[in-house]
Amino acid sequence: MPAPHAVCLIGFSDFERQALSAHFRLAAHRTPGYLLVDSIDSARFLVVDGDASAASERVARERRIGSSIFIGSRVPDGALARLPRPIDALHLLRELDTALLLNLERPLAAPAAPAHAAASRSAGPPTEPAALYEPSQLSALADLFPDRQEAAATASTEGPEVLAALLVDDSDIALRFLELKLGELGVRTHAVRDSSAALDQLARHSYALVCLDVELGDESPLDGLTLCQHIKRMPGTPPVVAIVSAHAGATDRVRGSLAGCDAYLAKPLAAADLASLVARLKKSAPAARRRAR
Questions:
Q1: How far apart are CA 144 and CA 182, in angstroms?
Q2: CATH of 140-292, one of 2.30.42.10, 3.30.390.10, 3.40.50.2300, 2.60.40.1940
Q3: pTM, whole model, 2 decimals?
Q4: Sign (positive/negative) of CA torsion 178, 179, 181, 182?
Q5: pLDDT at residue 161, as a whole number
């Protein structure tokens, strides 16, 4: 079992700290595991009370905003994610899991250490955590449905190579990562956090691609599989739907295919898989436009 990842709590009342500590004691025995530490310098991630100005100022001084999850209403630019109060410990663990998964694909920038910490550290090669999941591949089941793969229609008027994608995930970290990777591939994106917002966007706009997670949180009326079914039943030419999930076993992929998805991408997301999917979309977009005329 790999060693747990160190997390430091910054701020919080005694009650909130005790409640979070209890959850992290249990989280030390899961995979991935997390262990609370007292030192910022030894922590991979920080969980910060965003409503306590002293806590936010401390994190800024230590130049650790980029590796911090803020809880509360005030969040500085560049933070990993923001979670609302009351604190949902399970949601917090999911955000940490997502940060680890995305870190395997694109490592987070190493935070600049304060001068006193840098002087006390011994030189040596950095260590990376063990991979949490196997590298992903485009779902082989999606190849059984070539008609779905040819159904993409671009929403852009800027040129034949510009595609529009709708991203649906309840994780801020996952949404930002997808926006970054798709943007590098020339895809314009719009991100939403639940099924209601997704269906509203699809009713008002046309998208070539919809990327969605299976788990969309308790606030979403529909999970990702049910949302996929709704999208595929919408009138007109449906967009290509790619499920992007950490649950990517054989059974999960079968469920995705039965729900109508065109591709199933596993987290951590392999750049080659996403590039392959976008290339297929760009190739099929001219044919889709001809059929729409």
A1: 25
A2: 3.40.50.2300
A3: 0.58
A4: positive
A5: 54
